[in-house]
Amino acid sequence: MRNYTQQYINGEWVNSTGAETIDVINPATEEVIGKIISGTKEDVDRAVEAARAAFPTFSRMSREERIKLLEDIAKEYENRKEDLIRVMTEELGSPVTRSEQVQYEMGLQHFKKAAENLKTFEFTEQRGDTLIQKEAIGVAGLITPWNFPANQVCTKLASAFAAGSTVVLKPAALTPFTAIILAEIFESAGMPKGAFNLVNGSGSTIGEAISSHPDIDFVSFTGSGSVGAKIMENAAQDIKKVSLELGGKSPLVILKDANVKEAARTAVLNVAMNTGQVCTAATRTIIPQSMHDEFIEAIKEVLPEFPVGDPQDKSTFMGPQVSQGQWETVQSYIEKGMDEGAVLAAGGTGKPEGLDKGYFTKITVFTNVKSDMTIAKEEIFGPVMSILTYETIDEAIEIANDTIYGLAGYVFGEDADELRKVATNIRAGQITVNNAKIDYSAPFGGFKQSGIGREWGDYGIEEFLEPKAILGMPS
Questions:
Q1: pLDDT attached to residue 133
Q2: What is the Cα–Cα distance from 453 to 57, expressed in whole angstroms?
Q3: Residue 473 — very low, low, confident or very high, per pLDDT cuts 50/70/90?
Q4: Residue 332: enclosing H or E segment and its boundaries?
Q5: What is the DSSP letter of 255?
Q6: Which one of the listed residues 100, 116, 245, 379 is annotated catalytic?
Q7: Which of 96, 178, 277, 313 could form a disulfide with 149 if both were Cys (CB 3.0 to 4.6 A apart)?
Q8: Average pLDDT of every residue of the chain
């Protein structure tokens, strides 16, 4: 049992002003594995005060000092590798192999990439007699989701530290233990007091306090569109800057010359990864009409390659949904898909055979899906694939863009001209061609209702900076 009844404020673990606790559940066993304190607005006030006091000194640290800090964090992060893998497997239900190869690794790479970017990042630029200077924005409030407890926390923190901004972090209450280990890592790495502050608790209390706090200069949020809209509303009261990474309904466009079996494998991988709890998940698979029957057969053939089960088993590819509530949400979408006339090609409602305990879902594939169906329009955040068909490339692009979202897109095939045409015409922030590897220097963020702003690499650092123009400054 992990019991954390304190907050990390001004470089120390201190008692919360709250008394209630929140249970943390292992979604694979449905057992309580620990507790966190349910923080208060007063806890946020203390954290913001500490961050505000630390900002003048922290923001003036030299480039070399900040690079060393980020490199030291990366070293300490690596020292805690086994602890991080274990806790993410338990609190999220991430299969242990995925916890190591994806969850853990992504967090590490953000700190390494920030240190690398900082070595050449231009904070000043002389344009004639005008000096343009980029300065740390101030105190940043970071509100992060549960689906990637390291990745989405670390990308924000690495960028903030590189820019010289102090922070107050509120991690998700469903997966808080990764952030607590990060606090310990920062302490071991020599983080200046007050530069990093951690306040655990509910989103309605802590998130609200952060987004409306008058002494927070910038709010960076990853999560749902409805909460993002509320954060914007709160932030507008004192015109603070906001960066939002929200939902997605990403298309995977498969070209007519694609290897059908490899395309099917790619499609399943994209909806089963992290149990479909991925904002960039390719949940709309768009295939040529002529490929339909062969593709469905290929899907059925490759599904056994993605076993669902115990996250502690190294052969498991997909674990459970994060909570009972999320499981019920996914089940309701599967039912709605059937009710609206989509044809179930694989999976369906209920739990996979032999998995009665835990919030496990079947990998579910629908065919005969139309763009106006609920399962094709709304983000499900579960392993549910909607297959839509097209006759021409222009029609495929039109279907791909027929969404309120624009976070990611995928293209799979052989013809270079068609790959380029589709990739450049999908209205989304990041497009992946033929299973390209992750690029931690590439900007990450969305078009339309998928968000505002960018993360990762130098684009992420820019979000935590404000440009100042000094006119009449001779070179």
A1: 96
A2: 27
A3: confident
A4: helix 324-339
A5: P
A6: 245
A7: 178
A8: 97
Residue with tokens 């290929």: 298
DSSP state letters, 100-148: IIIIIHHHHHHHHHHHHHHTT---EEEETTEEEEEEE-SEEEEE--SSS
Contact 193, 9 (CB under 8 A): no
pLDDT category at 474 given cuts 50, 70, 90 is confident
Nearby residues of 371 by Cβ (< 8 Å), 6 or more positions away: 377, 388, 399, 402
The residue-averaged pLDDT of 123-142 equals 96
Token pair for 200:
């655990």
CA distance 352 to 230: 37
Encode 51-80: b = buried (16+ Cβ within 10 Å), e = exposed.
bbebbeebbebeeeebbebbbbbbebbeeb
Cβ atoms < 10 Å from Cβ of 200: 28
SS3 for 392? Answer: coil
Tens of pLDDT, residue by residue over 324-365, are 999 999 999 999 999 999 999 999 999 999 999 999 999 999
Query: Dihedrals φ, ψ of 207, to 5°?
Result: -60, -40
Write down the pTM of the prediction.
0.96
214: CB partners within 8 A, 6+ apart: 238
Find the helix packing angle between 81-92 and 177-188, rounded to 10°. Answer: 160
Told to judge if 245 belongs to the known catalytic residues of this protein, a careful annotator would answer yes
What sign does the CA torsion over 182, 183, 187, 190 have? positive
Count of Cβ atoms closer than 10 Å to residue 323 Cβ: 16
User: Radius of gyration (Cα) for the chain, nearest Å?
Assistant: 23
Q: Is residue 279 annotated as part of the catalytic site, yes or no? A: yes
C-alpha angle 276-386-153 in degrees, rounded to nearest 5: 25
**Nearest CA among 124, 90, 62 for reference residue 310:** 90
Phi and psi, residue 201, nearest 5°: 150, -170
C-alpha to C-alpha distances, 202 to 50, 282, 451, nearest whole angstrom: 21, 30, 22
CB-CB contact of 132 with 467 (8 Å): yes
Per-residue model confidence (pLDDT) at position 475: 72
Catalytic-labelled residue, pool 208, 279, 379, 463: 279
Contact call for residues 164 and 61 (beta carbons, < 8 A): yes
Is the C-alpha dihedral spanning 278, 280, 281, 284 positive or negative? positive
What three-state secondary structure class fits 225? helix
What phi and psi, each to the nearest 5 degrees, are found at residue 412? -135, 125
Q: pLDDT tens digit string along 39-53?
A: 999 999 999 999 999
